[in-house]
Amino acid sequence: MVKFTSSLENSEGFKVPIVNTYDNQQMVNKKLSEHLENILSECRSSEHLRKSQVKDLVNQANAVIKDYRNYKNIVQNEADQFEERILLIKSEVTKLIENME
What we know:
Elements: H1 2-7, H2 22-44, H3 51-100
Helix pairs in contact: 2-3
């Protein structure tokens, strides 16, 4: 699958373990940054584009923004749930300590 995806024009495929490592984070950050920079660059150099090309570029830009916001919401929702659990853990630890005394 990775080989096939990488063979497509303007595509890259990666096989990434589910482990949250520094390298994985850097890869995701790098690819997202490159993608955003490419769209920004295309927007800035769009002086002589036909109307249909401008429309395609606008659609691409909107899709990138939408994808990023969806991803951010997914991550934020998880972070909110984890923060709630952390508060519950702190509360339970406090109760444990109080019961020991």
